[in-house]
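[stage:ingest] chain + small molecule (pyridoxal-5'-phosphate)
[stage:ingest] validated
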Amino acid sequence: MSRTVYVNGEYVPEAEAKVSVFDRAFLMADGVYEVTSVLGGRLIDFDGHAARLERSLGELGMGMPMSRDELLTIHRELVVRNDLTDGMIYLQVTRGAPGDRDFAFPPEGTPQTVVLFTQSKPGLADSPLAKQGIRVISIPDVRWGRRDIKTVQLLYPSMGKMMAKKAGADDAWMVEDGAVTEGTSNNAYIVKDGTIVTRNLGTEILHGITRAAVLRFAREAQMKVEERAFTIDEAKAADEAFITSASMFVMPVVEIDGDAVGSGAPGPVATRLREIYLEESRKVAV
Ligand code: PLP
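[stage:predict] done
[stage:export] tokens:
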């Protein structure tokens, strides 16, 4: 079935969804994106993603192309038009297409490009992978320094996934100055003696929307949380490891660089956090 895609104010069949070759995101990676999960036809943490979109745009000197309410309307319209039950909505906003290539930003008033499309993933929350856990490798983090901005510069994360695939693993954790920053498209955690440890917020990592929710639920459940850097050796010696992202929710990590983490099977903390996250997020989904 052909998808209906939103492009600059119009809902069009995917084959007709086009942007200019002069678009700043195509030429300069000058754009930001968000991915919001849909479960049972409803959006998970839309407000969090809209707030981060506004922040990412602001950090790059751009404003929101429309109000949050209008964005919500488009998300919902795409769910309906594409009969989406479980999956994701991808949104991208760029600095627009000024009609030529130039390093200088386009003149004030150049319309931003706004694209949204759906990705159907039936049974997204029931992934068998969650019962099995994933395997990661470690790779150097050579990305730019403003990883808190969710830009479309995804070449290195994409290469990282390919390095993982080549090594027979599922994903890569990136390491800088001896410490884990995050996964290629997710935040990284370990659990030691009941304490959940994850990298503190800064410009070194993306401020995950799932991370914020999971840490809130963990604290509400009286679990101990430490937001600090940790090493790969510490992760290998941990009782458990896991990742979080909008489309993976909470996903156990059972192997790092070929070494089993804990028992080599998904641990109780990650498993419980996944249940709590899915249950609580569904309750307030819009
Ligand atoms: N870190 C990186 C580098 C990411 O690309 C992502 C998601 O795409 C995340 C973390 C997780 O963020 P969220 O929970 O908002 O999906």
